[in-house]
UniProtKB/TrEMBL annotation:
Phosphorolytic 3'-5' exoribonuclease that plays an important role in tRNA 3'-end maturation. Removes nucleotide residues following the 3'-CCA terminus of tRNAs; can also add nucleotides to the ends of RNA molecules by using nucleoside diphosphates as substrates, but this may not be physiologically important. Probably plays a role in initiation of 16S rRNA degradation (leading to ribosome degradation) during starvation. This is Ribonuclease PH. CDD domains: RNase_PH_bact. It comes from the Bacteria. Homohexameric ring arranged as a trimer of dimers. It is an enzyme of class 2 (transferase). It comes from Aquicoccus porphyridii. The gene is rph. It catalyses: tRNA(n+1) + phosphate = tRNA(n) + a ribonucleoside 5'-diphosphate. One of its GO terms (molecular function) is tRNA binding.
Length: 238
């Protein structure tokens, strides 16, 4: 039995509320159980120097956790003068994941920055950030298309992510914090809505795993991402 009482293949309740900020070209609040992330997308008519002159667009991301997003207060990274290694790793993951679903030629030579701020954390913050980040990106691209600045839709497929792991010897979908902290195997799966893989992060946290277990986790992830992609499309078109 999972601590939450969920079935092995059951995700936490997911909601995606769009248009939650006034100024961003795209925004949403994604809630995956008790993990809540504010995602905003900002369009800029510039690109990084290594992209300038290529005619290609760029999508990047920044990620952060608020001081009381967890059970005890954490220090703001700005007060330390630098980002922690975990933060840098996660925001790079978000950026490259979102870029995998973008036709950068169709986007044109402009940059969209997706900011993901964790309001409350209960496991799976990077996965929620990627999933919500795509919705914010979708809304920002809609703004460009309505204005006629982009003719062909540069978003190929939804990009979503979900965690899976081996908990109490069983493959489970969408780990919350109690499961994540005790899982023998932990994995994050980033996919396009059509099931094609973008990135898989899997590691043995307390026990090794078999190929059969990895395949079982992949199947769970495909199910979860399929559900998330449908929610993303519904939220972005509402």
């Amino acid at each position: 039995m999972r601590p939450s009482g969920r079935d092995l293949s059951e995700m936490r309740p997911v909601s995606i509320e769009t248009g939650v900020t006034k100024h961003a070209e795209g925004s949403c609040m994604i809630r995956v159980g008790d993990t809540h992330v504010l995602c905003t997308a900002t369009i800029e008519d510039r690109v990084p120097p290594f992209v300038k002159g290529t005619g290609l667009g760029w999508v990047t991301a920044e990620y952060g956790m608020l001081p009381r997003s967890t059970t005890s207060r954490m220090r703001r990274e700005a007060t330390a003068g630098k980002q922690g290694g975990r933060t840098v790793e996660i925001q790079r993951l978000i950026g490259r994941s979102l870029r995998a679903g973008v036709d950068r030629v169709a986007l044109g030579e402009r940059q969209i920055t997706v900011d993901c701020d964790v309001i409350q954390a209960d496991g799976g913050t990077r996965c929620a950030s990627i999933t919500g980040g795509w919705v914010a990106l979708r809304l920002a691209v809609n703004t460009l298309m309505k204005a006629g600045d982009v003719i062909s839709d540069p978003l190929i497929e939804p990009v979503a992510a979900v965690s899976c792991g081996i908990y109490a010897g069983q493959p489970v979908l969408d780990l919350d914090y109690p499961e994540d902290s005790e899982a023998g195997v932990d994995g994050n799966f980033v996919m396009l809505g059509n099931g094609r893989l973008i990135e898989v992060q899997m590691s043995a946290e307390g026990a090794t795993f078999t190929r059969e277990q990895m395949d079982a986790l992949m199947e769970l992830a495909e199910t979860g991402v399929g559900e998330l992609a449908a929610m993303q499309k519904a939220a972005a078109s509402a």
